[in-house]
Amino acid sequence: MKKAIIALFTLAITISTYAQEAFKIKVEKDKVINFEMLLKTDIEGSQDIMMDMSMLMSVKPIEVSDDTIILETKYSKIKMDVNAGIMMASYDSSQEPEDEITKMLASQIQPLLDATLILTMDPYGNIQNIEAPNVPNGLFDESNLKGITLGFPSKEITIGESWETSSETQLGINITITNTLTEKTAEGFKIEIKGNLYNQDGKVIGSQSGFYIIDPITKLTKLSETTTHIEVEGQKISSSVELKQIK
Questions:
Q1: Is the pTM of this model over 0.90?
Q2: Residue 152 neighbours by CB under 8 Å, 6+ apart
Q3: What is the pLDDT at residue 18?
């Protein structure tokens, strides 16, 4: 009986310790992780626009410590299809531009392909800073890069538990999201998200929902699918983002 009690106590301590550390980021220095992002955007307004984008990017941890994790990120390929009614355009960074429109798109997107982005986070995946040197404002959307990590509280998270995260976009829109750990699957931890977007006056102008599958080892995003709806200045914007790790 005494041995059984000691064994159960040891097991409880082990499970508790694992749970406390289950959602800490665990990456190896210089080990590259590749992602593919698919982004679809529909804009309804005075000029309807539909845009599909796909991007390949690599993420390399260049500093890993107990307090800070720094990731070096580079985009290796960007494809884009734009339908703006009277104007349609396609762009593929792996191909030479053939007309004036694709040449214009290539010149605008090239700074992002040339840039090395630096992302700094705490051990629980909460983004502290993003550096995007020589990338013009409006070309780079920080929220897309932030999707590689969801950001976790520095305490035990159990199935069914929720926590809240808040952020501000480059356009001054505030986003408040409720994250709920729903289950542990063969792929990893599934977390469902749901929240609202607010303007600078605190008025709700949109919503966001979706899910993340968190890699059971690195605790980075293995797969995510999110949908955002927002209305700004008479324009209704709907976007869906899929992010997934690739080999």
A1: no
A2: 23, 24, 124, 125, 126, 163, 219
A3: 41
Q: What is the mean pLDDT of residues 228-244?
A: 93
Average pLDDT, the chain: 88
**Residues 71 and 62 sit within 8 Å (Cβ to Cβ):** yes
pLDDT tens, residue by residue, 33-42: 999 999 999 9
What would the pLDDT profile of 73-132 be if each residue is shown by its tens digit? 999 999 999 998 888 889 999 999 888 888 998 999 999 999 999 999 999 999 999 998
Report pLDDT digits (tens) over 120-172: 999 999 999 999 888 887 677 788 788 999 999 998 899 999 999 988 877 78
Q: Identify the residue whose tokens are 């008025």.
A: 203
Burial class (CB in 10 A: 0-12, 13-18, 19+), 162: middle
CA distance 244 to 212: 10
By the 10 Å C-beta count (0-12 exposed, 13-18 middle, 19+ buried), 206 is classed as: buried
Whether the predicted pLDDT of 28 surpasses 70: yes
Q: Spell out the SS3 assignment of the chain.
A: CHHHHHHHHHHHHHHHHHHHHCCCCCCCCCCCEEEEEEEEEEEECCCCEEEEEEEEEEEEEEEECCCCEEEEEEEEEEEEEEECCCCEEEEECCCCCCCHHHHHHHHHHHHHHHCCEEEEECCCCCEEEEECCCCCCCCCCHHHHHCCCCCCCCCCCCCCCEEEEEEECCCCCEEEEEEEEEEECCCCEEEEEEEEEECCCCCEEEEEEEEEEECCCCCCEEEEEEEEEEEECCEEEEEEEEEEEEC
